[in-house]
Amino acid sequence: MRSKVRKVAIVGVGYVGSTCAYSLINQAICDEIILIDRTPEKAYAQALDLSHCMDFVHARTRISTGTFEQCSDADVIVLCMGIRPKNIKNRLEVLESAYSIHKPIIAQIMASGFNGIFLAASNPVDLVTYMVWKISGLPRNQVLGTGTSIDSSRMKTLLSHYFPVDPRSVQGYVLGEHGDSQFPVWSHVTIGGKPVMDILSQHPERFRHLKLDEIAKKTKETGTEIYTLKGSTYYGIANALAYIIHSILNDDHRIIAVSAVLEGEYGQNDICTGVPAILTRHGIKEIVELNLTPKEQEQFKHSCTVIRGALASLPPL
User: Fold this and answer.
1) 174: part of which helix (H) or strand (E)?
2) What share of the chain has pLDDT > 70, as a percent?
3) Domain of 140?
4) Are residues 266 and 153 in the same domain?
5) Domain Lactate/malate dehydrogenase C-terminal spans what residues (predicted)?
6) CA dist., res. 183 & res. 15, Å (int)
């Protein structure tokens, strides 16, 4: 019999945080969820509303509001804080506000004695993940971000429309920044185990309408399109969060493209970016280093350069 209560704390209960809680409840991923927000009344209302799901789901999840002091025994803390500025051109533009919001909150959480896993969803997620790692002082395996998990899913979904197959039959990753410098690793994308590059070369007439550059562009711009049309993205990223949390709490050893701290992998050090990683009960067990083509190596290097340029604008961490 399992005696350990699986506890998740969600900090920031706007669209992403509340939808993440909803996904966790519907999938019966954890035993307890606490919601923390700068507006306690909002957190209370979200918890009350979500508690009314219990009669219609497979398992009961305790959900309540909480404080940073109650984070001490959490297994995973999900960070969904941030502002929603208008007319932004890319995610890096909210870096200054992300720093001012996260620095005091991470300090308060660590003061509680927390020693679990931080999972960042706030944008710019690669930089926020790096900030959390530095401020918290936790080992790098215990700090990760959603990274390019959602971008990889968007790429798979787009490809599934062309072939057509179930998106889960498409395997592959988008690497680098969760932003404009990301790129799909086409050399490692497969459809049912068959490399997509082989499929295209063997069936040029059948798939002549499929342009990989256009797929990459659509993958990168989809988030902005959703944001422009409805003001926020939350269903996809919330399910990505739930998927990552499930993999951690159940010690799945599943490989997911997340924002991870690199210390030598892919020839990079002291930086956070989207790479495939094996996730376990202890966070990141291992970063999977794909054998990139020369072009992909340059794309990865460029993406890291973009992230480093943004990091240089931050105060010392």
Assistant:
1) strand 174-175
2) 96
3) 7-145
4) yes
5) 148-306
6) 27
